[in-house]
Amino acid sequence: MAEDIFRRIRKENSKMNMNFTAEIYNEALIMIEDLCLEIANKVLNQLGMPSPNRSAAASFDVELCREQNYNTGDLLSYVQSNIPKLTLEQKGIYDQIMQTVNNGVGEIFFLDAPGGTGKTFLIRLILAAIRFQNDIALALASSEIAATLLPGGRTAHSALKLPLNLQFIETPTCNISKASGMGKVLQKCKLIVWDECTMAYKKSLEALDRSLQDLRGNIRPFGDALILLAGDFRQTLPVIPRSTPEDEINACLKYSTLWRHVNTLKLTTNMRVQLQNDRSAEIFSHQLLEIGNGKVLVDLTSGRVSLPHSFCNLVTSKEELVEKVFPNIQTNYKNHDWLSERAILAAKNKDVYELNNIIQSNIQSEAVTYKSVDTVVEADEG
Ligand SMILES: Nc1ncnc2c1ncn2[C@@H]1O[C@H](COP(=O)(O)OP(=O)(O)OP(=O)(O)O)[C@@H](O)[C@H]1O
């Protein structure tokens, strides 16, 4: 267990010159003791093992080291080379946020950015501009994929230790103490970015709000921290299994009392269109916005929209779709670059399984079954 912790810490702090330390053994003892308490309601001492030092664990600020462990020289050159590229719209938002950071005042911004308008580009620059001054900018996202797009990005659930059964708790909080590494990060940080916040349950942001108020000893929204929320309400809203659309809308951030404190900033120019000067990309992005903005008629009986004429290529079966996206998969499947450029997205697991079966049945090779575990692990391991 101690070796797992050691590997995890080395991975999280790739540039930290860290050796095996007594604190790592201590963290392992704490984890073992937590399990024993849960299973047998006994501390390690009662089971003939050494007791962990709980206060020493609090001073083991891995989280704090992680957030301050950036190469400032690299960040400075990144900032200097990318600021001149910002469009007027992006520069206006960059300046407003950096000014608020430098003034040290609390504010809640929402960056309303349809796909392709340079939201990720801008956020990466803001993170770098804060970090190169040796200040902390915490990058969170609602999904793992979005988290990987931001340097130092982590899922909000894992970083904030949000309860897994959030929706059933009246007033959830983050499971973070003042003395913990993450508690210190949240007290010190100059900015918290939460990308794809539009997918998060409003209760997860409310939990962060409560915890920041407590950690920072300030009863203003989010403890007067500077928060940059980003996302697009035209895209996926919080997913609640077996719920109605009303439940999903009610779970979303706009229906939180926090929303009235939010200052919305907008990005509107599609950079993919602008940079490539591609007319068809422009038409496609316009059509996407029309759908997202509810301008396309919905069939009231089925609840579906009819896709605009020339919006995309339509196919008549899953087999045809597989053939279009993965032509000649029998031989191409060995080419990883080819594979990494294509994917089929489906809204339901049922369709994912069916599509996977069709693709796999086209590949003539020996089938290997790997075991997997799908139980929930500790929130901080997720
Ligand atoms: N000012 C800029 N100068 C040069 N390239 C830019 C600029 N803004 C954005 N880009 C590029 O445009 C593309 C789209 O930007 P980005 O990925 O940041 O958009 P996004 O709003 O996050 O889109 P999505 O939500 O679809 O991921 C990227 O390749 C990005 O590097």
Automatic annotation (TrEMBL):
It comes from the Eukaryota. Keywords: ATP-binding, DNA damage, DNA recombination, DNA repair, Helicase, Hydrolase, Nucleotide-binding. InterPro entries: DNA_helicase_pif1-like_DEAD, P-loop_NTPase. Its EC number is 5.6.2.3. It is an enzyme of class 5 (isomerase). Pfam families: PIF1. It catalyses: ATP + H2O = ADP + phosphate + H(+). Residues 85-296 form the DNA helicase Pif1-like DEAD-box helicase domain. Gene3D superfamilies: P-loop containing nucleotide triphosphate hydrolases. Its cofactor is Mg(2+). Belongs to the helicase family. This is ATP-dependent DNA helicase. It comes from Limulus polyphemus (Atlantic horseshoe crab). The gene is LOC106477837.
